[in-house]
Specification:
Length: 593
Amino acid sequence: MSNRPSPEPGITVSALWRLLLADQFNHHRLRLLIGFCALISVDFFQLCIPLVVKRAIDSLAAAEATMAYLVRLAGLIVFIAVSVVILRYIWRRLLIGFSRYLEQSLRNRIFSHILKMDQHFFSQRSTGDIMAHGSNDLNAVQMACGMGMVAAVDALVMSLAAVGFMVHIHPTLTLCALLPLPFLAIATRLLSARLHHRFNQVQEQFALLTEFARSTLISVKLIKAYTYEQDQSERFDRMGKDYVHANIRVAMINGLLFPISTLIGNTGHLIILVFGGSLVIDGAITLGDFAAFTTYLQMLIWPMMAVGWVANLTQRGVTALRRIHGLVTAEPILVDAPDSVELPPRNVSFRAHGLSFSYPGSSAAQLEDVCFDVHSGIVGITGKTGSGKTTLCKLLLRLYPVDDNTLLFGGTDVNRLSIDRLRAHIAYVSQEPILFSDTISANIGFGIENVQTGDLEAAAADADIHQEILEFSNGYDTVIGERGVTLSGGQRQRVALARALLTDRPILIIDDGLSAIDTSSENRIIDALRKRFADKTVFIVSNRIKLLSMTDRIFILENGRLTADAPHESLLRTNAFYQSIHRKQLQEEGLNA
């Protein structure tokens, strides 16, 4: 199952209304008022047709009807039918349209909230689960607040009015016809409770299926390389069968609700045929009354069926709303302090003093008592796998909270600085470059409005990718595919580096983002970085000695501790770990020569 937090089952429907829906209903109240007026008018027009038919039948039975009279009645029916068509268009346009506006509002709210969340949130929820909130869950809410709401009002108005006309014709006959209705209410209540639980299982299974499909698509080259196509297809088939099975379990409930509603409605018709027929024979009601009563009872079948359908839509909608509420009320663990400093500090130095860190929910320390002071220059960071290199980069980027006064930016505790203001000073290149299925120029200029061609090309040149881009058939207008699939690993890293350089921020963090670049490119890139960042700071995470040798100083991390902070030459003389990786890489170069 998904690792997402479960929705809050205890929250009431009224609370969900206030938190997620009330504003939209208030904003569109005029649209809703006109729409419901049109809907109710349609119902009353439809209720008038049996009265017209009653007059026609009674006049024919009494041999009092004339052709002109019947033509007038037919014209009245045509007028009612045309009015129903116009009014039905109006209420559909307004009420179903409102449900789409509501869906849009919730989708925007979900999307905006997701963008505000931090790393901890995304470690707790899969992409498939988040996507399910924006697809299946939203569709369920839209149906409940669209057709579900319309059907509920329509059924209520139609049933009350139809029962009123039936009582006017014959109270006792009405009571007999309505006797089966309590059984429908009991059956609906019992089945709806099961429907809520089963629909929640459908949504969770859909989230798993979506996440598996997404992860398969983005790693399709790896799957093909390991010839796992058949295995992935079989796993997807099993998950698809589980999803179908969950839907069938929901369909079993629906399959009971609708037949039960129909059975109860037809039972009422049987009662009317026997008891109502005897009343016509005895002269207690006219043949026209019998025909009108039968028509009104027929009109009651839809409201009775709608009870089950509306209960289904409502349960789905409430379940989906609870899931959405659980998402949009999730709070980030990293937030600005109430007294946070909005203005950026003049000095963009980093200083760590006793910096220790463990990931939320973990007792193992990823960093322990780290101390350093960096004002400018190129700083290399190296260490064994799991030593804390990437974790340190995440803390410098303010992706996780730290203890007070353990990490300072420009001489100010990072916990007192605005998170957005601090991040606005930092450009970042990750281990796995994030590229979009767009042109190379759009990828490099991401997030920058009105970027100048000269600036974009200069950034690409400093990232040593400009000439290679010009060799593509469409140059900078070349579309590189999803996640830059048409580029090599080194080209993807250099495009991502060019994007970071174009932002021209005072701090650049490269988290092993040059691992796929050859030595000659490394030299040109480092030379360009020295020119661009003459008075600025660059952090480069790498285990490649040649790259580290071009930095001003090198941090060595071991088991989360900073064990060395010195230039390349000094580490070669004094640090055993650095000496060992230096010897190993020299041997590898000798073997490859």
